[in-house]
Amino acid sequence: MPVHPQCRLQYPNPIVLNTRQVKNTFMKKLSKKQAALVGVIVVLGAIGLWAATANQTKTADKSAISADAKPKASLAVTTTKPQSANWPLSFTANGSIAAWQEAIVGSELSGILLEEVRVNVGDVVKRGQVLARFTSESVAAQVAQQKAAVEEARAALAEAQSNAERARTLANSGALSAQQTTQYEIAERSTKARLMSAQASLDMQQIRLRQTRVVAPDDGVISSRTATVGSVAPQGQELFRLIRQNRLEWRAEVNATDLQQIKPGQVVKLHITNGVTVEGKVRMIAPTADPLTRNALVYVDLPVPVNAHAGMFGTGEFMLGQAEALTLPQSAVVMRDGFSYVYQLGKDDKVTQTKITLGRRVGDRIEVTNGASKITKDMTLVAQGAGFLANGDIVSVVPATALTPPSAPAATPATKPTVANTAPLVMK
Predict the structure, then answer these.
(1) Can you tell me whether residue 360 is helix, strand or coil?
(2) pLDDT tens figures, 273-314
(3) Which residues partner with 116 through β-bridges?
(4) Which residue from 6, 8, 3 is spatially nearest to 31, judged by alpha carbons?
(5) Residue 64: pLDDT band with limits 50, 70, 90
(6) C-beta atoms surrounding 329 within 10 Å
(7) Residues near 216 by Cβ (< 8 Å), separated by ≥ 6?
(8) Which of 60, 87, 182, 392 is buried most, with the most CB atoms less than 10 Å from its CB?
(9) From CA 361, how far away is CA 340, in angstroms rounded?
């Protein structure tokens, strides 16, 4: 360090002086103005050093706070985008399956014993087939008696016709009076009327004889039987119930709003409670609606034969055509408090909850109807894991295969153990 000339003059040996002595001596020799300037420079240097140190400390604190305040992902999810599809347009209704027409076969006679029953419930019968038979001895005797009465009336008619013919012949000769001739003609007509009455009575008894055999009025299947051998059924009592032609129909209860979309001949896909699905066609629509439920019946013919029974319940889908739909996988839709929601992935992997209304379902996808203006094809929605999220959660997006459970490895066939050669050694 160079030594000030004044210091060199006053202190001929500056090497032995320490630094503090040099500084004090230097400050004493300076003027007041120079000392003030030096003091300002020292103060400014100290302030600059303190500011730099404080700035570095603040920057380090901010970095630590940012690192600690950055939110962590709450769940790993997969994403999907809405897709457009051309889906069938339809609506559903519920109803019961019933017989197309049901015939009641009853007794037409009274006071006669039921002698034989030939069919049971579930039997398929043909038109005119004998189902049951009553005892016919008493009716057959009445038929024979009436036949005799007919023969007697015919004989009386023959005699009356002969007398009337002779009377008409003698009337021109004057042997008989006109009054006698008229009496013979009246007797002829009366006898003919008695013959007709006897013949009608005979026909009635023959009908009663045929009624002792109960026959099927149409082709079909027996759905009910109350006939019992040995009973005396009164006239008109039901013996059998027959499903005509074995035809069944589905009677759907449709509200007034959907009723306007139905026309005869439309195809209906019916899902029956026993797991069977059949296709039917609308035959007719009831002209009146129930005043209590405001629903009208729609009669749908089912194919023959059908693996269903009268009285079963079914849900039918009326096919109305096709329409474009904006669809999502069902895993992306969350049901909460009776409403449907989806979660849209936004900036910084934050999800936003959006309320939607659902429509048609096909397979594992579902249509978005009301609220579709908020859901577009470009949106990224949470597909798997949406059920565990809340509005504003931070997620971590992973590939779909990452959340798919690995399939169990195929079982490798057990290796056949090697059998050692245990044959005895032969010494030569």
Answers:
(1) strand
(2) 888 899 999 999 999 999 998 899 999 999 988 888 899 999
(3) 133
(4) 6
(5) very low
(6) 18
(7) 105, 125, 126, 127, 128, 129, 131, 242
(8) 87
(9) 14
Cα–Cα distance for residue pair 21/30, rounded to 1 Å:
14
Which residue, among 325, 326, 327, 329, has the nearest Cα to 386 in the 3D structure? 329
pTM value surpassing 0.90: no
Nearest to 82 by CA among 334, 390, 354, 366: 366
Residue 113 DSSP label: B
pLDDT above 60: residue 211 = yes
Strand-pair category, 395-397 with 75-80: parallel
User: Which backbone phi and psi does 72 adopt, to 5 degrees?
Assistant: -100, 150
CA distances from 337 to 73, 312, 340, 355, 383 (A): 26, 33, 8, 11, 20
Which of 2.60.40.1930, 2.40.30.10, 2.60.120.560, 2.40.420.20 is the CATH number of 324-401?
2.40.420.20
- Please provide the size of the chain in residues: 428
- CB 142 within 8 Å of CB 212: no
CATH of domain 243-322: 2.40.30.170
Write the pLDDT tens digit of every residue in 11-38: 444 444 444 554 455 555 555 556 666 6
Query: Count of CB atoms within 10 A of residue 300's CB?
Result: 28
- Contact (CB, 8 A) for 3 and 14: yes
User: To which CATH superfamily is domain 105-240 assigned?
Assistant: Helix hairpin bin (1.10.287.470)
The torsion region of residue 397 among left (phi > 0), alpha (psi -120 to 50) and beta comes to beta
